Amino acid sequence: VTIMVTSPASKEFRNRIRITGQVASPQSVAFQPGMTVLDLVLLSGGVTDFAADSRAVLHRQVNGEYESYTLDLDAILTDGDMRFNHLLQPGDVISVPRKQLFKGEL
User: Fold this and answer.
1) pLDDT in tens, 7-35
2) What is the spatial distance between Cα 106 and Cα 99, in angstroms, rounded to a whole number?
3) 24 — phi, psi (to 5°)?
4) pLDDT at residue 4 tops 80
5) Whole-angstrom Cα distance, residue 106 to residue 103?
6) Whether the predicted pLDDT of 40 surpasses 90
7) Residue 21 and residue 98 in contact, taking contact as beta carbons nearer than 8 Å
8) In Å, what is the CA distance from 55 to each residue of 9, 38, 48, 82, 99?
9) Whole-angstrom Cα distance, residue 47 to residue 65?
10) pTM, 2 dp
11) CA quadruple 61, 54, 84, 31: dihedral, nearest 10
12) When comparing pLDDT for 84 and 10, which is higher?
């Protein structure tokens, strides 16, 4: 008997959400219904001093293609503006970039 794995991504792996970049503790966590951008940012320990938190991006797979949505984490965390506090879906990835000198962020 020969078994060939054609799709190594288990259901457990596909049902995770991730946050990377300039956060205190980049995470890959199990998706829970009702989780929001703010929930994931708080689970990761918040953004670092070097985070360009107004340029964060939510990457989501839609119909087999990744689409990117701009997030303003500064508006959520500082101003309480929940317009960017989207509900998350399995497989979502949030990227928090580093501040850049030439953009006047440092």
Assistant:
1) 655 666 678 999 999 999 999 999 999 99
2) 6
3) -60, -40
4) no
5) 8
6) yes
7) yes
8) 29, 15, 14, 16, 9
9) 28
10) 0.84
11) 50
12) 84
